[in-house]
Amino acid sequence: SQQGEEDPQALSIQEGENATMNCSYKTSINNLQWYRQNSGRGLVHLILIRSNEREKHSGRLRVTLDTSKKSSSLLITASRAADTASYFCATARGGSNYKLTFGKGTLLTVNP
Amino acid sequence: EAGVAQSPRYKIIEKRQSVAFWCNPISGHATLYWYQQILGQGPKLLIQFQNNGVVDDSQLPKDRFSAERLKGVDSTLKIQPAKLEDSAVYLCASSLGLGETQYFGPGTRLLVL
């Protein structure tokens, strides 16, 4: 079963604008990760935020995590055409049986 | 540094036939994963290995799917017999260990007719 649910399912913006994608999940987590997938580079890890963190930055990416609401958001600032891809959140539960559960993804299209 | 290698990249078979996929993880990575990604969905974990031992195969349809990782390096995933609903991209990933960042291969796109 898929734990994370991304919102919106699809997003279309102009180059230079910011893009925000949201992820909601159901059970407690150890960490939450965001991945990008496009035909050129496959599935690539972007950023990981742990359950005791609230915000994290990496270049033009900003991720927030609200464990009380079981939700996370990914903000891409100053978007580029090359950011066009599907973005997935993946939740990880801890312990010896550590594994990732992916959501269905948000398809982001950045128009030049 | 070489990434995760997978072959073949594409495969078309008829239902009830068998098929096998191969994965070579990044050198030194102890943990290897196989995911199934159906069109329009996120990847779903089928099985994960720590060295050559199975850590989790709870979502692997064991009546038709099997996987092995001999010598704790390369891995093969087999489907026998294939069904129409097995049409998907099969992704292999590896990481230094459990809980570490996973690196994905390009995937094998399977079409079952």
Q: Can you offer a commentary on this structure?
A:
The complex is a heterodimer of chains A (about 110) and B (about 110). Chain A has about 110 residues and is mostly beta strands. Chain A has a single domain (about 5-110), classed as Immunoglobulins (Immunoglobulin-like, Sandwich). In chain A, about 0% of the residues lie in helices and about 60% in strands. The radius of gyration of chain A is 13 Å and the shape is globular. Chain A starts with a strand and ends with a strand. Chain B has one domain: Immunoglobulins (Immunoglobulin-like, Sandwich). Chain B contains no helices and eleven strands. Classes of the chains: A mainly beta (about 110), B mainly beta (about 110). The interface of A and B includes residues 44, 101 and 102 of A.
Offer a few descriptive terms:
heterodimer, A: 112 residues, mainly beta, Immunoglobulin-like, six-stranded mixed sheet, five-stranded antiparallel sheet, B: 113 residues, seven-stranded mixed sheet, four-stranded antiparallel sheet
Please tell me what the overall shape of chain B is.
Answer: globular
Helix content of chain B: under 10%
Order of helix and strand elements from N to C terminus of chain B: EEEEEEEEEEE
Count of structural domains of chain A: 1
Specify the biggest β-sheet of chain B: 7 strands, mixed
Computed over alpha carbons, the radius of gyration of chain A is 13 Å
Low-confidence stretches of chain B: none
The radius of gyration of chain B is 13 Å
Query: CATH homologous superfamily of chain B?
Result: Immunoglobulins
Task: Please give the CATH class of chain A.
Answer: Mainly Beta
- In round numbers, the mean pLDDT of chain B is 95
Anisotropy-based shape of chain A: globular
Secondary-structure element string of chain A: EEEEEEEEEEE
